[in-house]
Specification:
The complex is a heterodimer of chains A (133) and B (286). Chain A has 133 residues and is mainly alpha-helical. Chain A contains five helices and no strands. Chain A starts with 20 loop residues before the first helix and ends with a helix. In chain B, β1 and β2 form a beta hairpin. The longest helix of chain B is centred in the N-terminal third of the chain and has 25 residues. The chains are: A mainly alpha (133), B mainly alpha (286).
């Protein structure tokens, strides 16, 4: 293999105390995944005690529509609402890792090109997640 | 508090399928959808929209779970991922917001399926090749600092690679985004193809980087499915948990495989998706 640059700035050992974007992303992803799984398991356990879980029930239960219903469900400790909280946590996990890399590209790397790129990725993703019908 | 045997069996079946989906998805960089969607629809009688809804959440789980390993081990190229996510995200918005009104999904499926089967040719041409040879950075790749290196656990050495074909890759990514916006699936496969055929990065880097990106694309698409009530919470829980276990298993396997073997896994998945899309376009319900 011939390579123009043997040292790769982003993945080679980062000098000093800098936080590597890779390590930060890995942590964000890991925390997001573990938290959402725990919340989903708690939600399933709770709904297991609240009503019978038949195949019929599991195949036909839909997500709660509004944020208000979800919030009320969580306040009443409803199993299904807790599961949905877990799903939302999972959906937001990749977005949080984009946020983390944007912050690190800016603060640690002073790489304005990639800070801008990441910022637009974040905006477009949020538009898709929140606005598309 | 009752829990029938039938529902336990149902959960186990779903968990088994999802586990397989997680393994295949994390090795090939495609997410779990290729296994999960057809099995849920064909064998378990779940309507396609709900199956895709579960699959989108599972893609996020595979991408995040496997991604945390690949990124920590520096196989993922984070700059390539960030740069190409931009064009995928833009394409996805255009696809979902504008094109759905004008494009017939059946014709699109047939075209997409055909395109995937054709792209098998360049993949098969160097199916046994371990690393791409003689790749030089193109101007954009050098400017964007996209070249990189990773430690290959199988070869026990640092692999340094260059990146080329950025304009073609940007175009392919925009197409990948549009297709995922229109069909709800199929973005991962074009991402790996762009890495393999246009940019010529080592296969492990291309599947790990695609794996990293599909989470963001799927998160953008998940909103639509959540609002339309197509994400069934009690289906998503077993799918997500099993797919995650599969994904972690997949990362262990993938890091110890040769690049050539990873490309073979991808080629099989590519052929399956190509046929799947083609049949779906022809109106075969699954």
């Amino acid at each position: 293999m011939q390579a123009d640059h043997l040292v790769n700035e982003s993945s080679a050992s980062t000098p000093g105390h800098k936080i590597a974007i890779q390590d930060a992303s890995a942590w964000v992803l890991r925390i997001g995944v573990v938290t959402s799984v725990i919340v989903m398991v708690v939600g399933t356990t709770v709904s297991f005690f609240q009503h019978s879980l038949t195949v019929q029930y599991m195949e036909h239960t839909k997500v709660i529509d509004s944020a208000r219903d979800l919030w009320q469900g969580l306040c009443n400790f409803r199993g299904q609402a807790i599961i949905e909280l877990g799903i939302y946590l999972l959906v937001f996990t990749p977005i949080m890792r984009v946020v983390a890399s944007m912050v690190l590209f800016c603060v640690e790397e002073h790489d304005w090109l990639y800070t801008t790129v990441t910022f637009f990725v974040l905006v477009l993703t949020l538009v898709g997640l929140l606005l598309l019908k | 508090m009752t829990f029938q045997a039938a529902s336990v069996l149902w959960l186990l079946k779903i968990a088994g399928v999802s586990l397989a989906g997680g393994v295949v998805g994390s090795i090939s960089g495609l997410g779990g959808g290729i296994v999960i969607v057809p099995v849920l629809t064909l064998f378990m009688g779940i309507p396609i929209e709900q199956a895709i809804g579960a699959s989108i959440v599972s893609v996020i789980a595979v991408s995040s779970g496997a991604g945390s390993v690949y990124v920590k081990d520096r196989i993922t190229n984070i700059r390539i991922a960030m740069f190409l996510e931009l064009s995928t995200a833009a394409g996805a918005l255009v696809g979902a917001a504008l094109l759905t009104r004008w494009v017939n999904p059946h014709i699109l499926s047939i075209l997409f399926g055909g395109m995937l089967l054709v792209s098998l040719i360049p993949i098969m041409a160097n199916i046994g090749e371990e690393l791409p040879k003689g790749v030089r950075n193109d101007r954009l790749a050098a400017y964007l600092k996209l070249n990189g290196s990773y430690f290959d656990k199988r070869m026990q050495q640092e692999v340094v690679y260059n990146v080329t074909g950025i304009p073609a890759a940007i175009g392919l990514m925009a197409i990948a985004g549009m297709i995922s916006g229109l069909l709800g699936i199929g973005a991962g496969v074009v991402k790996v193809l762009a890495h393999e055929i246009a940019m010529k990065v080592p296969t492990k880097v291309s599947t790990a980087t695609s794996n990293f990106m599909i989470g963001v694309t799927a998160a953008a698409a998940a909103g639509v499915y959540l609002r339309r009530g197509l994400v069934l919470p009690y289906l998503v829980v077993p799918v997500s948990i099993a797919v995650l276990l599969g994904a972690f298993l997949g990362t262990i396997l993938m890091e110890r495989m040769s690049n050539a073997r990873v490309r073979q896994v991808f080629a099989v998945a590519l052929a399956v998706i190509g046929v799947e899309m083609f049949l779906r376009g022809l109106g075969v319900r699954f």
